[in-house]
Amino acid sequence: MNCILKAKNLYFSYSKESVLEDVSFCVEERDFFAITGPNGGGKSTLIKIILGILKPQKGGVSIDSSLDRNIDFGYVPQNTNINLEFPITVLDVVLMGNGSKHKSKRGLLSIKYSKLEIECAKHSLKKVGMENYLNNKISDLSGGQRQRVMIARAICSHPKILILDEPTSSIDINGQKEIYKLLKDLNKELTIIVVTHDLKVISNYADKVLYINRKGYMHNLDDNRFKLDRDGHFCEVELMQMLGAKDA
Ligand SMILES: Nc1ncnc2c1ncn2[C@@H]1O[C@H](COP(=O)(O)OP(=O)(O)O)[C@@H](O)[C@H]1O
Ligand SMILES: [Mg+2]
Predict the structure, then answer these.
(1) Is 39 in the pocket of ligand 1 (CB under 6 A)?
(2) Which among 3, 23, 43, 73 counts the fewest CB atoms within 10 Å?
(3) Are residues 10 and 73 in the same domain?
């Protein structure tokens, strides 16, 4: 296996109680890599370790030498706390993703962005189907549209790996479908790591799934066994049993 991102015997705790124990996995290029498991199981913690925000006490995550976390990782966090009262446009939100390059004492909105940056932001908004909303206020969008803007922001710097933490948790069913269709499309060009509770998404889209409940269980799905039939239900039950099977 040619892992571009690899965890080996990783242990993490915030205090005495351990949150992640002996977690190992391998992400290959162009994987659609799903992470699932119960609330509090350690999924978001693992994402933060992958991003280099948290350091494990034992073991670690190694990334391919061709990758740079600052450039090649795009991240859509679990709860994107955009203040909806704030009169900010779609284009501003995407441009602010480049904020770290623009340290300004006068605040992000007084920054002058270059033509190139603006073109780049427009291009990534086009990729997510939001090019007609550039000047709309972010507060006027639906949850699904807003999340697509957050994805545009994360892919603006052309990352090689896009990491999303429960991207559809507060979005209606149609919006969810659109987001996953978009991710499938983006997956042609980049590796996707996504935290989700949605078994349909896992069985329809994922190549691999990591079930995390303190310990991690890796499952390879690329043998097609768990792709849903037209009805969907049987495989979903089977998948759920498989994911939970080793959890005892
Ligand atoms: N910043 C933190 N400080 C202390 N404990 C935390 C912190 N963040 C998460 N935890 C705890 O770590 C465990 C795993 O949390 P988390 O990674 O957010 O799980 P998940 O994303 O799977 O719901 C939970 O018990 C949670 O309460
Ligand atoms: Mg979480």
Answers:
(1) yes
(2) 3
(3) no
Fill in the DSSP letter of residue 26: E
Q: Is 79 a pocket residue for ligand 1 (Cβ < 6 Å)? A: no
Q: Which two tokens stand for residue 176?
A: 């969810």
CA angle 150, 155, 158 (to 5 degrees): 165
The ligand whose atoms approach the alpha carbon of 164 most closely is: 2
Beta carbon of 40 within 6 Å of any ligand 1 atom: yes
CB-neighbour burial class of residue 16 (10 A; exposed 0-12, middle 13-18, buried 19+): exposed
Kindly state whether residues 129 and 181 are assigned to the same domain.
yes
Q: What is the pTM of this model?
A: 0.90
C-alpha 13 to ligand 1 mean position (Å): 9
Q: What is the pLDDT of residues 201-212, one digit of tens each?
A: 888 899 999 999
Does 181 lie in the same domain as 154?
yes
| 23 domain residue, yes or no | no
Specify the residue with its C-alpha closest to ligand 1, atom 8.
Answer: 45
Do 5 and 106 have their domain in common?
no
